[in-house]
Design a protein that fits this description.
With 569 residues, this protein is α/β, with parallel strands linked by helices. The chain has two domains: 325 residues, Metal-dependent hydrolases (TIM Barrel, Alpha-Beta Barrel); 103 residues, no CATH class. The chain has 16 helices and 21 strands. The two termini are 38 Å apart. The C terminus is likely disordered.
Length: 569
């Protein structure tokens, strides 16, 4: 007898092959058979002709802290995700000696725009070492499968304290960091996460620690990675980190290197295509260099009490009380300085000064209700005023409570289409678990299936499914996942291709210490199974005393199978 049989499905194998009609049986957490199955099962589900596909493997999440208080990794499983990779950008929470906890959380709260109060109230510090952190996740019995990158910034902070964000490491300090990295790899890390991105700042506006690492420090980490038969290196790159350097690091380690992020920048239109071409060229020569790309327009919602996307504009304040911020924003000298900065093009800034991409999302005063849904450029033109003045005056009029949404990246779909069609671009970049008050992109795969497949026809459904399932599994060495074939782990989703998509963001107050976050739902998603166990029923999470997810510590030692560049197959 099987544990589960899903009947009358259109089955996608996750490998890019055409969908087939049939049934799928599960036994002991794995796919046992596919075809016309007559045998009995403890549980039977009638798919009614809907698509049964592998669960999404989300390569770029930040659930490191949240998983210590929320084993479901909400909202990802409710958005089709069955495996998450954490520790991205080098922003994790392990290894953390007790005397470094405050520093780690303060920096994490700033760089990933998380509530510091929620982190302090929610994080379970039942660990110090990387191995102890993995064991904590096992005890928590997580819902999705979890793979953990060793965190460069955290290892620097563990060894160097506050100096980690101020200077390169000494040889003795580097030896200690490399020892921590070996401990992490021995315990089951999937590789190393790091960042050189100029926009990544810690508490008080200081550079995040990995930005202070020398090129030789990166080379040293890659030599350690090369001692293992598995592992990847992902880096969130700034403008001075080139694909050529990642190629050098991949050559040292012999393991895949991942460049993030690859998105279309309207103020630097050739950047994404140049990165992808360089990655294609490296793979054509046998060097496994890939990109992490987004399929969604990146929009951040914020009020001026915490304007994350504007902090890269000199002299925007890094922080301050509401009274201090109101005084600054009312100052004509401050406004002139901001205008002068925006007049000088700089593609490294998150917001470039295009006020047509800055929307008024929610006003605080009824008298301003007519402004909702309009962008600042429209409002400024109607009022005959400067857009910056309109923007700041509206916020001041409402006590800084106005909610704005900046549409900052991936807003030109024809350019995004070209990114998605490149096989070296692994679709991910959800940032799930981070930036909770600004965005919720955890449902990127549902957006991919709805917008890019059904509405735009830019990809066929089997190819789109492959790009978020077996492709990431193969590059990262995640064994027997991302595919529905006999013997594979039964990580699956059931969805209606005619209705699949994501909703607009909805505000919820369900974080520790009463913190807020934005969430989305996935209409058309009718079930998510992890290792053969249903964790989402189409409406809500299914309660389990022990979550079915595995903390992944063993990975494929072989080379990735996606070494050739080109358009999607």
């Amino acid at each position: 007898m099987y544990d589960l049989v899903i009947r009358n499905a259109r089955i996608a194998d996750g490998l890019g092959n055409p969908l087939v009609d049939g049934d799928l049986a599960v036994k002991d957490g794995r796919v046992a058979a596919i075809g016309r199955i007559r045998d009995a099962a403890a549980e039977t589900v009638d798919a009614g002709g809907q698509v049964l596909a592998p669960g999404v493997i989300d390569l770029h999440t930040h659930y490191d802290a949240q998983l210590t208080w929320d084993k479901t990794a909400s909202p990802s499983p409710a958005l089709g995700v069955t495996t998450v990779v954490i520790g991205n950008c080098g922003f994790g929470i392990a290894p953390t000696p007790a005397n470094r906890r405050d520093t780690v959380l303060a920096n994490l709260s700033e760089v990933e725009a998380m509530s510091l109060d929620a982190l302090r109230a929610g994080v379970d510090w039942g660990f110090e070492t990387f191995g102890e952190y993995l064991e904590l996740l096992r005890r928590k019995s997580v819902y999705p499968n979890v793979a953990v990158l060793a965190s460069h910034t955290v290892m620097r902070t563990a060894v160097m304290g506050d100096d980690a964000s101020e200077r390169p490491s000494t040889p003795a300090e580097l030896d200690l960091m490399l020892g921590l990295f070996r401990e992490a790899m021995d315990a089951g890390a999937i590789g190393l996460g790091s960042s050189t991105n100029e926009n990544h700042r810690g508490f008080g506006g200081i550079p995040i620690a990995s930005r202070m690492a020398s090129d030789d420090e990166f080379r040293s980490f890659m030599r350690v990675l090369g001692d293992y038969r598995h592992g990847v290196f992902m880096a969130t790159c700034g403008y001075h980190t080139t694909v050529d350097f990642l190629e050098e690091l991949a050559t040292i380690s012999g393991r895949p290197a991942l460049y993030a992020p690859v998105v279309h920048y309207s103020n630097d239109p050739g950047r994404a295509s140049g990165i992808l071409a360089a990655c294609d060229d490296a793979r054509a020569r046998g060097i496994p260099v890939y990109a992490q790309a987004s399929c969604q327009p990146l929009s951040l919602s914020f009020s001026l009490t915490s304007a994350y996307i504007l902090k890269t504009i000199y002299p925007w304040p890094a922080d301050g009380s509401s009274d201090e911020l109101r005084r600054i924003f009312a100052d004509p000298g401050f406004r002139d300085a901001i205008r002068a900065t925006l007049a000088q093009p700089d593609p490294r800034r998150i917001f470039s000064g295009d006020w047509s991409l800055m929307d008024v999302t929610t006003v605080a005063l009824p008298k301003n209700a007519s402004l909702e849904g309009h962008n600042i450029a429209e409002i400024a033109a109607a009022q005959g005023r400067d857009p910056l003045d309109v923007f700041l005056d509206l916020a001041l009029d409402e006590g800084l409570a106005t909610l704005f949404t900046g549409r900052i990246l991936n807003v030109e779909e024809v350019k995004v289409r070209d990114i998605l069609r490149n096989d070296g671009a692994l679709v991910s970049l959800s940032d799930a678990g981070a930036h909770n008050t600004f965005l919720c992109d955890a449902g990127y795969a549902m957006y991919l299936y709805g917008r890019w497949v059904r509405e735009l026809g830019a990809l066929d459904l089997p190819t789109a499914i492959r790009k978020v399932t077996s492709d990431p599994a193969d590059v990262y060495g995640i064994i027997d996942r991302g595919r529905l074939i006999p013997g594979a782990h039964a990580d699956m989703i059931l969805f209606d291709p005619d209705t699949i998509g994501i909703t607009k963001m909805e505000r919820h107050r369900d974080m520790p210490a009463g913190g807020e976050r934005l969430l989305r739902r996935a209409p058309g998603l009718h079930g998510t199974w992890v290792n053969g166990v249903r964790v989402f029923d189409g409406t809500d999470y299914v309660a389990h005393a022990s979550g079915p997810g595995e903390v992944l510590i063993r990975f494929n030692a072989g080379k990735p199978q996606l070494a050739m560049p080109g358009a999607a197959r």
